[in-house]
Amino acid sequence: MIKKVQLNNYAFIQTNYNKNENLSEVNKTEKISKVEEIKKALENGTYKIDIHKTAIAMAKALMK
Predict the structure, then answer these.
(1) Which ranges constitute the DSSP H helices of 1-64?
(2) What tens-digit pLDDT sequence spans the chain (64 residues)?
(3) pLDDT of residue 44
(4) Distance between CA 30 and CA 33 in Å, rounded?
(5) Residue 28 contacts residue 21 (beta carbons within 8 Å)
(6) Contact assessment for residue 38 and residue 47, using Cβ atoms and an 8 Å cutoff
(7) 48 CB-near residues (< 8 Å, 6+ apart)
């Protein structure tokens, strides 16, 4: 049986939706700053590749 959504339930949903939306914006900002950090390291020639992680990722991709 479907229950009617009461006003307090609607407010709860809206509050949680807005929290998730703000979290998404924070994640986007973090990703952009990480990309900028990598970009600067590439330009400076200081970017270090983790060969071990790269090899594992490549091996996993080939096994799929």
Answers:
(1) 7-44, 51-63
(2) 455 555 555 555 555 555 555 667 767 788 888 889 999 999 999 999 899 999 999 999 999 8
(3) 94
(4) 5
(5) no
(6) yes
(7) 41
Which structure tokens are listed for 27? 């994640």
| Core vs surface per residue 22-41: b (16+ CB within 10 A) or e | eeeeeeeeeeeeeeeeeeee
- Per domain, the residue ranges of the chain are 7-63
49: three-class secondary structure by DSSP: coil
Task: Assign residue 5 a region (left: φ > 0; alpha: ψ between -120 and 50; beta: otherwise).
Answer: beta
**Token representation of residue 18:** 């807005």
Give the total residue count for the chain.
64
